[in-house]
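Section 3.1 - Work completed
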Amino acid sequence: MRPFTSILGWSVSRYEKFDQCKRRYYYDYYAKYDRDIPLRKIAFLKSLTSTHLEIGHLTHDTIAALLHRLRKNTSPIDTEKVLHYSSSQVDRAMESKIFLEVYYNQQEKIDADDLKDRVGICLKNFFASRWYQWLIGEALPRRSSWVIEPKDYGEVRINGLKAYCKVDFLFPAIEGKFYILDWKTGKADHPRHRRQMMGYVLYARDIFNVAADEVRPVIVYLGEPYEEMENSFSESELDEFAGQIAKETQEMYRYCENIEENIPRPKSFFPKQARGLCAYCNYWELCES
């Protein structure tokens, strides 16, 4: 693990928030500096979940738990028990979390059965995939080398700049390649997800000191229809992407009063940028008030 530094780190999700709406970006990353709204209020709004997010969280958490179990114990997986476990996790989420759609009166309530069905579809597609069959067969002898949703933030250095590229699942294959699988439960967005895959290759290159052509990142879309997207990247493509990361990092730096300590400029420097996304924003009521 790298020593802590205060300076901000680039990530695909951080820059997307910055690009979409500066005010939302401020609330997500700099809430403690707000002098107008109590931190507890911003923290509460940030904690709101949504149906889309919960499907992703529940699917990821269930697959991660299954992979951890496989790494410790190679006895056959009872897929029906896994589906039952995911259903119980939906019930727990319904009891413990507040959904954005309900909080902002977009829906009267969340349909728990529908949520269970949609998570179940993703898990059934995972069980039917070539990756699951490979994991319970050929991959098992190398399970001690699996990297399953690392506990850290996936911090790397890209041309000296701090960045975060946290993988869902990384494992070495017998032929000497590294595979990175990223589970998606929403709609395919190939250009956006291709950027993510380049970040994963840079992560592997930095952490494991491997060449770009030794890394095979695959986006696995577990919803309907099931789909996979795999790309390979040349060193020149990755160098170009690293240059884009440097440019985007500099853009975010310009909103810092103190770059090294990641202290933001006043909130007034972070304008509201309504692009049809307000209905999906946790902080909607702060901008409407």
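Second construct:
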Amino acid sequence: MSSSRSPWSKRSLTAQAMGHVDPLTKAVVPPIHVATTYIRDEDNAYSSGFVYGRPDNATIREAEGVLAMLEEAEAGALLFSSGMAAATAVFQALDPGDHIVASKVMYWALRSWLMTEAVRWGLKVDFVETDNLDALREAVKPGQTKLVWIETPSNPLWTITDIAGAAEIAHAAGARLAVDSTTASPIHTRPLNLGADIVMHAATKVLNGHSDVVAGALAGAKADAFWARVVNIRKMQGAILGPFEAYLLMRGMRTLHVRTAAQAKSALDLAQRFSAHPKVARVLYPGLPQHPGHDVAARQMENGFGYMLSIQVSDGEAAAIRTAARVGLWKRATSLGGVESLIEHRASVEGPGTPCPPDLLRLSTGIEDVEDLYRDLDEALRG
């Protein structure tokens, strides 16, 4: 079932996990299928459609169906054992010698992989500030560039890349456009509708929303030969998500609309208030009119501007680290998108070569009372 063939909205379909009812028990919660092998028919065929647990699983199909519906993905969706497994599968589907253009500001682990492991695969990678379409256009090499990879909003500076503009540039050069839309989620942005070929999510984050599943996801615009290659990579490398994790992910997605609405509202409130705070030099959040990417974000995002923001502390790096040490309600932890609000000094995590300013604190807004969140961080900033 998809929203285009249903009278119900995406929110309603997501809340009910596509309206699935277990045919055996009539349960409204889909069961967890943990089998690794399946009975053949008498003619040696597999009429059930399932052969073995490494490439496929019924519970995983259920969760993939929800995500494909949300992203309006004609090729469907694929769940992986982590966001890194999902992202690297796209690059592994390229050929040695292929050229890649990627966002300069992006998830640090993937940037590190591209600078090290991708080179060993024979791939050529250039990093560029993709929020500058002129710079992107100059970096793309017609006939050589096979993939443009952008992250928007980009972690942790929350720069905004024009997806439609990037797609036009990529396609004109004969390349595909892949978008890491982890921090936007399909509630705020649907890259495939803006011209992207593939969208990636670190599903560990807001898609799951409860900080208890490590997962990754891809959704494809078209079931072409490249998408088939990605599907085969997941199958042969055994990078599929486990059925219990898929069940938890599907459970998390059922509340995605209400969680993201609350988180985006609180994030905007905090961004506005900390913009005037005497201990904050700068707030980075695309929902603020003064943000350089605000106009593009307003055009390609809906239902708010997401749940992530960063603040730069007026008194520098040491003060930022002390602030993170003083909070009580905010939790000092890596990751983002969960129901609990997290704070992190990113430069310490990313290490040498990070584009992250040393005075920056990354904030992932949860669903707590926004007044409590403000008071806790305000007191920590003031010492």
